[in-house]
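Hey, quick one: can you model this chain's 3D structure?
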Amino acid sequence: MMATGTTRKNCHCEIKSALRLGVRAHDFGCAPADELAARIAAAGFSCVQLALNKAVAGLNLTAGDLNASLAQKIGGAFTRHGVGIEVLGCYINPVHPDPAVRQKLLEYFKDHLRFARDFGCGIVALESGSVNADYSPHPANHGEVAFNEMLAGVAELVGEAEKHGVTVGFEAVHCHTVSSAQKMRRVLDTIRSKHLRVVFDAANLLSPQNFQEQAGLVPAALELLVDDIAVIHAKDFVIENGAQKTVPAGRGQLDFTPVLEFVRSHPSGVSVLLEEAGANDAAACAKFLQQKYDQVNL
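Sure thing. Here's the predicted structure for all 298 residues.
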């Protein structure tokens, strides 16, 4: 059994919470909010991560465009179909190389924080970015200059989140400025706010260089971040010819057992959101995760 919950006081392993499964809304297409919510509900899912411009037809929002009326309209459509908006996805690049563009992106994210409650949502999520404008890998992502630029931007967003009583969800990726659980821990310990929490994706922490170490790496990451994880992303990966490719959960090389042990032991029932799983794949992914979850022994 994974050590999570036995060495950190705030995780109560005696509590077995239900598996709450959701999807990324745009994996079910781009459509009017009511139609999209209906599709997701019909597939049996109770919550989503919603990236507005990717998922809701007709939107091309930039900084200053979002408002309470639009947020309430979209949020209401999902509520009517019994689908909760667990996370607003606003995956800006907080270390964009052009400072003017970067600030506009930060302002766009702040719009999501200001109106998150109007969607019925409390978390707005992003990754830590790349010094390349297109988010592609760059060696400088792993240096202190990029890390400190990222830290300043995230701290600014967290300050805005605190004003509105919502949370910045932050996600590590092995080729971005926050590339490991250790760097994520450093961010959390530096900013020190209950309005900054982790979107945990085990596949994001693995690469062609370290994937064979996942049996130790993933449980250690969960242990390091256990008190700060707000939501789980579930996708898989395969390594082919030295390159990593993402695939739907259950179709790759990721061992989901440590992650599901964490979910099972978490007192508040952390949601698991599928990624890379559209309408044709989501049911099989959900069945796979539910079966793995049911096999977890605490």
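One thing worth noting: The first helix runs from residue 33 to 42.
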